[in-house]
Structure formats: structure tokens, C-alpha cells
Amino acid sequence: MEKQLGQITFTNKQLRVLIFPLVIEQFLGVAVGLADSVMVASVGEAAVSAVSLVDSINVLLFFAMNALATGGAVVCGQFLGRKDTERANEAGRQLLVFVVLLGTAVMAVLYLAKSIILHGLFGRIDADVMAYANTYFLIVEASIPFMALYSAGAAIFRVMGNSSVSMKISVVMNLVNVCGNAILIFGVGMGVEGVAIPTFAARVLGAAAVIVLLRNPAYIIHISRPFHYRFQGDMVKKILQVGVPSSIESSLFQLGKVMLLSLVSSFGTASIAANAIGNSIATVQTLPAAAIGVGMITVVSQCAGARDFEHARFYIRKLMCWSYVLMLIWNLLLFAIQSLLVGLYNVSGEAAHLAMIILWLHGGLGILMWPAAFTLPQALKGAGDTSYVMIVAVASMWTFRILTGFLFAKYLGMGVLGTWYAMFIDWVCRLLLFLVRYRGKKWETKYVK
Predict the structure, then answer these.
(1) Pairwise CA distance, residues 129 & 221, whole Å
(2) pTM (2 d.p.)
(3) Which residue has the higher pLDDT, 83 or 44?
(4) How far apart are CA 405 and CA 396, in angstroms?
(5) How far apart are CA 270 and CA 275, in angstroms?
(6) Residue 329, Cβ neighbours under 10 Å: how many?
(7) CB 226 within 8 A of CB 169
């Protein structure tokens, strides 16, 4: 039996200090996304279409890079848990350099394949949409290395328990993005460039901020002065073993959502609008549990590093209880103003009716199932059990959410609601398999060796 290295404790105050900034950060991301959509719409339909098409690629990249960075931060957190600050620092350095190199390589591939992507992947689109897409692509894809660096740096701060740092950087980035859009679109009168340039500037600023802050030796994980780097294959391998499964899971999840979107588009304008509203507000409905899931990685990774699984289980139970309580309170508040939120979109009566059904179902079932289906697996990831989470998430999504979604929506005539019914079945499968895994002992053996 593995010798226990020590005990990891988090007070309720420490947990609140960790999680509250994460809630704010998640909320800002949703709010700024909505604001961006409104401002892009003012440029015209061609600009909206172009940005949407290019961002369908960028969303995949963002989630993949963020998942890889979070996986790498788990390695740092486990070394912190075993009080090995030297290796935690080394893991941080290896992660930062690796994601920058990977981001640069991805950027180069995208530029080389730009014509294939724009003309081959997007097919025949109008000339003005293609022109906008080309401009947006050229500017925004240059920010990929900076996006990767910011994601890694923010993940490192979170795993140290300093989520307020990543929140503050996120606030500044979002302000730059929104204010930049407003100035360049409404003030200067730019087109799609007015959307792309602030995005690029915000990501560069975010990357610069994490580097400057991580050079402060007061932080447990920091960048040494002067900076010394030597490639360590064993450490990079550990990072990839934890990060790659999470990255694959995230990418395939987003790809599945795109496939379902193509199915929904065949049901008409009302269904498309209802699905879009549902997706937007559904993200808001899950904010508390999603934020707690991010915090769960910090707590469990340190416990796993110390081989202190008794405390790991204690904090998992506590944070899961918080997730359910906050999901209940938050969604009851949202239910009270739900009709007002849907009314802001100014859609047809049919679309509004469908959206209300979707949101009642998603919010109500989310209170019961979402934390077990999505917050709990974050604890398994924190322990290093990312391969199991990937297999369950991908298999369940493609079996139930995708295949069953097509069966319900297209062949059984349920329309857009059929895709959401299939998603709820996916939730049931996920939570059962994750609960079984959590109740067992195998996830306790997946810590970084």
C-alpha cells in the first residue's frame, strides 16, 4: 500500500476564496460573449456569418488548448500536494514552453491551410462572407500562441489556489475586448477588423500579464530569474498523459455539438432560434457547478499528490453538496426571470415557446443531474484519472447525445426537442459511470508518479 505523504486541508474560507472568483470569471465569459454577438450583428449579416464560421474552428482550438493546460496544471498541483515545489516549478516551466510551441505550430498549420479551410471546409459561401472570413482568420489566428500561454498561466494560478489572479486578468481582457469592439465598430466604423483586433489585443495582454505575474518569486510556482529552460521529456510526458485525454474529450465534445447544430438547422428558423437561445441561457444555468468543478481540480490534485484520498473524498462530497445547493438557488432565480430573458431575443412566438420548454427541462434536470455528470468528473481529472473520463464522456456523447439525438429528432419526429432529450439521456449515462468510478478505488491509483 502506498505510504501516505501528508494531509491536505482546505478551510471553508479557503474554498470560498478559491471558488467565488471562478464563478465571476465564468459569468464574465458568458456576458462578454453575448455583448460581442450584439456588436458583431451591427456590422451586418455577412460579418456575423464570417465570424461564426471561423469561430467554429477557434472554439475547438480554445477548448482543446484550455483542457491541455488544465491537465498540465494538474501535474503541478500534485507536486504541490506532495510538497515538491522544485518539481512543481519545473512542471510549470515545461507546460508554459510546451503550449507556446504547440500554439505556434498550430497557428503555422492554419495559415498554410487557410485556403483549404476557408474554401474546402466552409464550401461555397457568398463573396462578401468569404472576404470577411479571410480578414478575421488572418488576424485572430495570430493570437493562438498567446491564447495557449494565457490558458496555461491561468491554470497554474488556479491550481496554486490563486483563482483571484486569473479572474482579475480575465476582467481586464474582457474589458479590452468589449471596449475595443465598441470603439472600433461604433467609433471608427470598422467592419470585421473591429471584432478581430480587440480579440488579438486581449489575448496578447492576457499572455503578457501571466508571464509578468509568474516572474514574482512570492508565488510557489514561478518563472525563475533569469529564466532557465531545458527540455525534460519525462516531465512533458507526464503533462501529456494527463492533458491529452482531456484535450481530446473537449475537442470531440465540441465537434459533436457542431454536428447536432447541423441537424437542428434542418428543422427551420424557429428551431434554430430556440436552440441558440437554449444553448446561451443553459450555459448560465450551470455556472455555479461549472465554477466549482474548476476549483475541484485544485483541491483534488493537491490531495492526490499527497496520497491523502481520505481528505480528497471529504472535499469532493463537500463541494458536490455546494454544487447542488447553489444550482438549486441559482436556477430558481433564473426561472423567475426566464420569460424576460427569452423575451430579450425578440423571436417568434413558436421559437420563444420551444426555448422556454428547453430551459425548463435543462434547468430542472440540471439541478438533479448536472453536478454528478459534469462537476464530479473534474475531481477524477484532478486525481489524474483523465483517460477514464475521456472514454466515458466521448462514448456516452456519441452513443446517446449524437446517435440517439438523430433518432429522436429526425426519425421519430421530435424535432429540436429530440436533441435535448437525447442530451439528458447522455447525462444519466455519465453520472452513473462517474459515480461508480468515484465509489471505487481505481481512480486513487492514477496520481502522477
Answers:
(1) 45
(2) 0.86
(3) 83
(4) 12
(5) 9
(6) 12
(7) no
